[in-house]
Amino acid sequence: MGTRVYGQLHDPLDHATGIEKRELLAHLAGDCDPFRVLPIKRGPGTRERPNLIPSSNQQRLLGCKCNDYVMHIEYMWLHMGVPKRCGCGYWFELCPVAPL
């Protein structure tokens, strides 16, 4: 008969299932933002080199804070393969990524 050890916690990966387990595995693999919700730093944002926004869907809602002095966010829908220009002049385009 085996002995029981009390006071030790089990590994959360043993109990997690579904999307929670995939999130934990992504964190262990080094992806600290598996759902792609953290702010993205803007690059040049020109028509030739738009800011690439990762998305596992064919469309994504994007909020652009045009500069540091505004108190509101401009929202727009991006569609896969169609670059779009914000009112401030920055260009954005979706780039495909694998879903979690």
Number of folding domains? Answer: 1
The CATH fourth-level homologous superfamily: Cytochrome c oxidase, subunit Vb
N-to-C series of helices and strands: HHEEEEE
Helix content: 10-25%
Number of strands: 5
Chain-averaged pLDDT: 90
CATH architecture: Sandwich
Approximately how much beta-strand content do the residues carry?
A: 25-35%
* Alpha-beta content class: alpha+beta
List the topology elements.
Blueprint: H1 12-15, H2 18-28, E1 51-55, E2 59-64, E3 74-79, E4 84-85, E5 91-96
Parallel strand pairs: 1-5
Antiparallel strand pairs: 2-3, 4-5
Question: How would you describe this structure to a colleague?
Answer:
There is one protein chain. This protein is an alpha+beta fold and 100 residues long. The protein has one domain (12-96): Sandwich (Cytochrome C Oxidase, Chain F), CATH 2.60.11. The chain has 2 helices and 5 strands. The strands form 2 sheets. A 3-stranded mixed beta sheet has the order 1-5-4, with no helix packed on it. Strands 2-3 form a two-stranded antiparallel ribbon. Strand 4 and strand 5 form a beta hairpin. The protein starts with 11 loop residues before the first helix and ends with a strand. The model has no long low-confidence stretch (mean pLDDT 90). Keywords: Metal-binding, Zinc.
